């Protein structure tokens, strides 16, 4: 089929799509800039922002090239004009704030942030260490794409419009429900946020105004075999047992990964792991895999290192007003989360860090704070049942304040090692996950 004929066919398709959307009532979808799909518009202006009919620079008749990425960067690049969103530098120009997706060349994620429930933003952007190679020319492995036991994934050349629909579609960030080339048959819709849209973030651990379940399903249109709702074996030779990633309890793809690129480092002895099935990455010298924290810092955002590995602490439930002391809220921040368990463990271990609300840490009302109280809080945070005697206020409920036990008097009953580096080295080599 000649290029011209393809375009005619495609034009017909576009017309059909326009008619379909007219059927929806001709409502303009709330997408930004020129990316607006309208129901009916006899004299659209926006086509000319992107297409030239006789003097185009790409075979999709775009105003500039040679690659589609170059074209998008005329508005969305660091030197671009025409959009507030600089995805190359990872910044929103008007207020110099950090974009949610990170960035393709620079990103401002505070990848060493020790705060329990947040990943903050750097004042100065850093060069990225891994990114989705969207230049439309470099082929990479489409990790996990395809049926069970079909290898690590096919070779794939990614471009911006594989993921985004430049003509607008009313989805969150104009994401295509079926990304081009994904091979998906079921659309994965991601519901758009209400206007006005907020493209920047101050906390990368908050994956934004989207449903984690929808977002994970969307990423999995391409990375099919990464989507897991249990750790049971999938039957695949490579992607066999997997951490839950379907968005339940906050475990969505974008909780751990940035969508465009990250400045995280992964130079630790054990963190620079090989690619699945011994396959190779494209751009990712530091093996940081679009992660939002250095090495495996992302793990201990949810799993506290102190009570390590037997207990899993999750995201805090919806914040409660901090007016009264809440049962379990040992650090007085108005919510019960893993940070409270941490405060109690430190107290039990005789480490400093006392708080005016330590009394609220005695969740089993036995008059003492012990590691069992910390464990109870972590169970609560993980939505597991917590044994409390009758008459003892449930975790999260208001608590009548009784004076705190002498905070720093007890001798350590737990010997936590608060620094990640203190853990014993294992015999696993740095690349042992790579199949040979
Ligand atoms: C924001 C930039 C932008 C605007 C505005 C825009 N286009 Fe496009 N258009 C593109 C890009 C990029 C492609 C290539 C997409 C691809 O390869 O999948 C494209 C592809 C096309 C195609 C090929 C089929 C397809 O959908 O991929 C047609 C036809 C088309 N555009 C027509 C139009 C018309 C008519 C308008 C105005 C109503 C318009 N475009 C507005 C960027 C734009
Ligand atoms: C002519 C300038 C222009 C070009 C070219 C352009 N964009 Fe945009 N884009 C905008 C504007 C304007 C906005 C709205 C945000 C803002 O105010 O800057 C926007 C918004 C977006 C958004 C957010 C949409 C939403 O629903 O929130 C995405 C994603 C996006 N563009 C992707 C692309 C991609 C991919 C390309 C290349 C195929 C591209 N853009 C080319 C001007 C442009
Ligand atoms: C692998 C899929 C993928 C590719 C390729 C991709 N994007 Fe995105 N993009 C996303 C996702 C997902 C988001 C939403 C991120 C979020 O909210 O966490 C996004 C967000 C955006 C935004 C909104 C600002 C932000 O950072 O959140 C713009 C603008 C944008 N993309 C433009 C582009 C351009 C231009 C390209 C090509 C240079 C591109 N994207 C390539 C998936 C992709
Ligand atoms: C709990 C955090 C977490 C979640 C949730 C998560 N990932 Fe990952 N991902 C990682 C880590 C860590 C790596 C580095 C490799 C490793 O340790 O196995 C990685 C690696 C990857 C890679 C690179 C290839 C590889 O396996 O090394 C891809 C692709 C990927 N993840 C896709 C996804 C997708 C798609 C989802 C959602 C369906 C997802 N991830 C959810 C943490 C996560
Ligand atoms: C259109 C298909 C497509 C979609 C949708 C997509 N990816 Fe990818 N992804 C790729 C390809 C191709 C590669 C390998 C090339 C590369 O590394 O850029 C890749 C690589 C990765 C990697 C490994 C990067 C590295 O360091 O080697 C991670 C992690 C990842 N994707 C996560 C995600 C997440 C999270 C989402 C959803 C926000 C997502 N992907 C959506 C195509 C896709
Ligand atoms: C968004 C929060 C979150 C992050 C980030 C996270 N996990 Fe988990 N993880 C969980 C939850 C929730 C469970 C299930 C807890 C339970 O059932 O007791 C879990 C379970 C596990 C399990 C036990 C297997 C299972 O599902 O029962 C292991 C091992 C594990 N995680 C390792 C990791 C590692 C390694 C990382 C870093 C790459 C990580 N987790 C990051 C929330 C998280």
Model description:
Helix 8 (338-348) runs antiparallel to helix 9. The strands form four sheets. A four-stranded antiparallel sheet has the order 1-2-3-9. The chain is α+β, with helices and mostly antiparallel strands and 436 residues long. The chain has helices spanning 3-23, 47-50, 68-76, 160-163, 212-222, 253-256, 299-302, 338-348, 371-381; strands at 85-86, 91-92, 97-99, 106-109, 121-127, 130-131, 135-141, 155-159, 200-201, 261-262. Residues 1-27, 309-323 and 401-436 have low confidence and may be disordered. 18% of the residues lie in helices and 8% in strands. Bound molecules: heme C (HEC) (6 copies). The site of one heme C (HEC) has 28 residues, from strand 7, strand 8, helix 4, helix 5 and helix 6. One heme C (HEC) binds at residues 130, 132-133, 140-143, 156, 158, 162-163, 179, 181-182, 219, 221-223, 253-254, 257, 259, 281-284, 289-290.
């Amino acid at each position: 089929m000649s290029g011209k004929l393809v375009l005619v066919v495609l034009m017909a398709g576009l017309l059909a799509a326009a008619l379909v959307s007219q059927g929806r009532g001709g409502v303009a979808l709330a997408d930004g800039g020129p990316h607006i799909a309208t129901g009916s518009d006899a004299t659209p202006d926006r086509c000319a922002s992107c297409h030239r009919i006789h003097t185009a620079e790409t075979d999709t008749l775009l105003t500039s090239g040679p690659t589609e990425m170059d074209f998008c960067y005329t508005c969305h690049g660091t030197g671009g004009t025409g959009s507030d969103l600089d995805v190359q530098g990872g910044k929103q120009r008007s207020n110099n704030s950090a974009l949610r997706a990170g960035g393709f060349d620079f990103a401002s994620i505070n990848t060493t942030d020790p705060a329990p429930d947040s990943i903050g933003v750097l004042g100065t952007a850093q060069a990225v260490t891994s990114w989705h190679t969207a230049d439309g020319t470099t082929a990479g492995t489409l990790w996990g794409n395809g049926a069970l036991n079909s290898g690590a994934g096919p070779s794939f050349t990614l471009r911006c419009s594989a993921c985004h629909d430049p003509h607008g579609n009313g989805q969150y960030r104009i994401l295509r429900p079926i990304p081009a080339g994904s091979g998906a048959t079921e659309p994965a819709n991601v519901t758009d946020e209400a206007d006005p849209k907020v493209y920047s973030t101050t906390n990368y651990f908050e994956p934004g105004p989207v449903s984690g379940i929808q977002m994970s399903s969307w990423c999995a249109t391409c990375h099919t075999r990464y989507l897991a709702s249990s750790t049971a074996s999938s039957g695949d030779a490579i992607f066999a047992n997997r951490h839950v990633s379907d968005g339940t309890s906050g475990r969505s793809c974008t909780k751990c990964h940035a969508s465009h690129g990250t400045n995280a480092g992964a130079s630790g002895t054990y963190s620079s792991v090989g690619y699945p099935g011994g396959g190779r990455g494209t751009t990712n010298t530091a093996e940081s895999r679009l992660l939002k924290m250095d090495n495996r810092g992302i793990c201990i955002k949810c799993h506290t290192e102190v009570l390590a590995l037997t207990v899993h602490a999750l995201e805090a439930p919806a914040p409660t007003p901090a007016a009264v002391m809440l049962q379990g809220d040992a650090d007085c921040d108005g919510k019960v989360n893993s940070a409270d368990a941490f405060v109690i463990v430190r107290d039990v271990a005789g480490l400093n860090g006392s708080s005016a609300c330590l009394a609220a840490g005695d969740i089993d009302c036995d008059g003492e704070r012990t590691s069992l109280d910390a464990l109870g809080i972590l169970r609560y945070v993980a939505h597991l049942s917590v044994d409390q005697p009758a008459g003892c206020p449930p975790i999260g409920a208001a608590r009548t304040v009784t004076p705190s036990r002498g905070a720093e008097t007890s001798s350590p009953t737990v010997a936590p090692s608060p620094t990640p580096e203190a853990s014993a080295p294992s015999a696993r080599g740095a690349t042992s996950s790579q199949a040979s």
